[in-house]
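Supplementary Data S3. Sequence and structure tokens for construct A.
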Amino acid sequence: MSSTRSAFRFLDRLRVRWSEVDLQQIVFNGHYLMYFDTAVAGYWRALALPYHETMAALQGDLYVRKATLEYEASARYDEQLAVGIRCARIGTSSMVFEAAVFRGEQRLVHGELVYVFADPATQTSRPVPPLLRDWLLGYEAGEAVVTVQTGDWATLGAASRGLRQAVFADELGAPAAAVDDAADAQAVHAVAFNRAGLPLATGRLLATAEGKGPVDQIGRIGRMATEPAMRGAGFGQALLAALAAASRARGDHALVLNAAPGAVPFYARAGFAPTGAVHHEAGVAHIEMRRLP
């Protein structure tokens, strides 16, 4: 069992809630298993692996065979904790995950979760698929879980359109023009794909003139969309970096974008700052933001 925080590539951060402490004013022992289970969901996200879609494609599912906990110290209300999850070993049909809860560098609780890959109809075990085995071992070895491709609409349009439909039309209720438009033919597009080739995030880069000469050209990032289940895993930031690199390569002197109010902190982490008031684009509120490419 890994005893140090640095042994875990994935850490899920949380804050102890009032409802999770008992009459001793410490976290009730059963909640640590909930912490582990919640962190496992974040682990799949960090792998760029939408759980339900992936298991359906693999024609199986994971079932808990055994869960163990060992308590070393107690967490208290409002403390900030980190829950580490790592795939320790993979057998023929089973997988063993190590889990630990840390307060700073102090390990409070640790344990193991044993899963069996099985037929979802009969719940009889099946061999762990090679794709899933390689995916887990590759992540634990430090390999990248997504690849960002840049290209034209002919190359990346199908992947981009599907993500835009899911986010702009289905989730936000934006009109059809938000899914594709005439500007797509002139744009540089970027799509983040996971190791199975599933598109997880998309965006585009247009050229806009602020003056009359080539030195006045700026890049305009737009149509940023991320698969809902994959948000918060950093794939959108990787996409922004790829679009910014394309903007620098062609000599743009600035980057601008229109951010939904709720996405302003996301873009601020990438160096963008608001430059205007809230306005509406395709029926959705936005704020213009700007940075150097």
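Construct B, processed identically:
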Amino acid sequence: MHDTYEPAAGKKSRLKTFIVIGVWVAILAILITAYMRAQSAREAQAQVDTGIKWDPQLLACNEVFDASPTDSFTTCLAMADEGWIDAAQRIAWAYTRDGEHQNWQSVYDWLVWLSDYDVYAELLSYIVLYEIGESNDVKEDGERGIRKMAIINNPAAAAYLASVYYLGAHQLPRQSNITWLLERAYQQSKFWVMPEEIARIYARGFLGKAQPEKAKALLIDATKDDFPLHANNVAWLFATTDSPQLADTKMAVTLAEKVVAEQEYAENYVYVDTLAAAYAADGKFDQAVEAQLKAVDLIKSAHKQNENPSPQLASFEERLALFKAQQPYVIEETLEAGNEFFESFKNQIEQALIDNLYVEVQAPEVDTLAQP
């Protein structure tokens, strides 16, 4: 997943940093969405397991991309009205889309209904009240809901509330410490607060004195979880960061080699690209060139059926040129202010919760007889 760090061509500093941060946010949202969709899949299977007969009309929901009154939308809405969870999620998502049919009241109404089945829909319903409530009383109700879920160990709610508190955007008196909320969310789930994110918070001193050693130790410890995702991302960060407090080229090589040593990951262009960057950072340029040549071949092969090459290919080839010139690949990051960081962090949680409503309906593998 290290491609989240890849820069765009052009200005080498501030523009690169904003692209890096933006893509990190997008990737994180994708990861969080995948996690939540697994939860939704289990709930949908539970419908089947408890005797609810699947209806093929649900497939119409896959053709719904906004709330325009198409035949597919009408059919999906009817299925949602009958009580189908997947349909209700897709309809709620459709009403969030920009355009003339966007309707946040309808979004909220469907989220309230879904709250009985989906904890993330419940959280999003409170966020909608908090963000777009028409009165302070309504906004406060939303914040109370977010706070309630944070207190009962919902990691997304805790991370969101921490951002609200940091930005000073709360309506109610603050009742929890920001650091405590973030660390609690991180301990509960590394999908909502990823190691790279909390490490940046510590290293840059957003919550007090800068603690780069704590940040580095946290990153190393995180590599033990969710292999190879965190091992790869930490290797990439150690190899490419311009922060001397966080750079660790030896550890970058160790982690990257550990990932590609696994047969199922050895031919993955993302992981091979990380390995090449780690070798270059450690001054092993012959090995870096060899690995990067392989990464370029792999990414070309993976996208050979597409009309256009992967948008990442150019950055892979740029790194290859650097390694041939015996130069490491270093990402120059300007230190964004804490407010900028937490505003982006808060927004990506909101977007991930919305994206979780986008459900692709699939026919179950088992048949049952009961009707909903």
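Residues 1-27, 37-51, 367-372 have pLDDT under 50 and may be disordered. Residues 17-204+336-372 form one domain.
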